[in-house]
């Protein structure tokens, strides 16, 4: 199996009111990649294209080095998926869920599922519809672990979870990849979660790539700038991404190479939230 578990090359999809264009990124084996961007940027569309739920118009999606369409059946034996809404039948109990899913996976392991259900403190006879959101997420994770998934694809899995449950969820993901043989693609708008666990970030904005690379490089590449509006010149203003200004002060995002122009201003480190907010306001800027 290749060391690149997921690779997108020039992936595009056009809708009447939205276009996802030329998406390119690589997720190596043994790492967690966070997918970020504002609502409607194309994160979920990208995941649906990876899973062949949607048909791409152009480009190539390779999962474990294989074409995601030609090898869809074998690929999905090794992929676990957790969406923001559970896709199991509401009337199924936890036990029923295992019976149904085990039919489809060649490497289903009951002992692993049983271990995960015990670890997650899930009641075997409770129906899916009766489980809390956190329990539903744990059930989907238990299923993914039980068929030996090498790649987890998560779309807003922590949305609506309380902070304690979210923290536990993140610990589970870190434990999942610790053997170096598994990877996670984690799309979320809760960027603080990614700051805790992500190795790589892919940032899609308005259907286009803004950034893909290490989390560290992204955070090191930008700064937050603050100051008085009267001190801003047109030249300085043009270097600011997503400028927000009031009568008493302004705030914006700058690239690290432009920091030398702002020596007389307050310069702070940027968070992922800062970068998403200011870039989304400004739009993609090369």
Automatic annotation (TrEMBL):
<dbReference type="GO" id="GO:0016887">
    <property type="term" value="F:ATP hydrolysis activity"/>
</dbReference>
<keyword id="KW-0813">Transport</keyword>
<dbReference type="Pfam" id="PF00005">
    <property type="entry name" value="ABC_tran"/>
</dbReference>
<dbReference type="GO" id="GO:0005524">
    <property type="term" value="F:ATP binding"/>
</dbReference>
<dbReference type="InterPro" id="IPR027417">
    <property type="entry name" value="P-loop_NTPase"/>
</dbReference>
<protein>
    <submittedName>
        <fullName>ABC-2 type transport system ATP-binding protein</fullName>
    </submittedName>
</protein>
<keyword id="KW-0547">Nucleotide-binding</keyword>
<dbReference type="InterPro" id="IPR003593">
    <property type="entry name" value="AAA+_ATPase"/>
</dbReference>
<feature type="domain" description="ABC transporter">
    <location>
        <begin position="6"/>
        <end position="231"/>
    </location>
</feature>
<dbReference type="InterPro" id="IPR051782">
    <property type="entry name" value="ABC_Transporter_VariousFunc"/>
</dbReference>
<dbReference type="InterPro" id="IPR003439">
    <property type="entry name" value="ABC_transporter-like_ATP-bd"/>
</dbReference>
<keyword id="KW-0067">ATP-binding</keyword>
């Amino acid at each position: 199996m290749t060391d690149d578990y997921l690779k997108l090359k020039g992936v595009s999809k056009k809708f009447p009111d939205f276009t996802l264009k030329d998406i390119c990124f690589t997720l190596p084996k043994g790492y967690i990649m966070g997918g970020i961007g504002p609502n409607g940027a194309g994160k979920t569309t990208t995941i649906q294209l990876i899973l062949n739920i949607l048909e791409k118009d152009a480009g190539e999606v390779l999962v474990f080095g294989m074409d995601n369409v030609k090898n869809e059946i074998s690929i999905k034996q090794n992929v676990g998926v957790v969406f923001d809404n559970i896709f199991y039948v509401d009337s199924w109990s936890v036990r029923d869920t295992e019976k149904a899913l085990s039919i489809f996976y060649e490497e289903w392991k009951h002992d692993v599922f049983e271990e995960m259900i015990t670890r997650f403190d899930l009641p075997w006879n409770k129906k899916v519809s009766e489980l809390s959101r956190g329990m539903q997420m744990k059930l989907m994770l238990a299923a993914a672990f039980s068929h030996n998934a090498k790649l987890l694809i998560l779309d807003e899995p922590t949305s609506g979870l309380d902070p304690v449950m979210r923290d536990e969820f993140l610990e589970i993901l870190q434990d999942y990849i610790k053997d170096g043989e598994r990877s996670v693609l984690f799309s979320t708008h809760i960027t603080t979660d990614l700051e805790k666990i992500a190795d790589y970030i892919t940032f899609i904005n308005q259907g286009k790539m803004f950034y893909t690379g290490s989390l560290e490089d992204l955070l090191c590449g930008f700064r937050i700038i603050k100051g008085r509006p009267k001190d801003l010149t047109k030249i300085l203003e043009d270097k600011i991404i997503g400028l927000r200004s009031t009568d008493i002060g302004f705030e914006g995002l700058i690239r690290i190479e432009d920091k030398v122009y702002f020596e007389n201003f307050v310069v702070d480190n940027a968070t992922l939230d800062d970068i998403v907010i200011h870039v989304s306001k400004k739009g993609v800027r090369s």
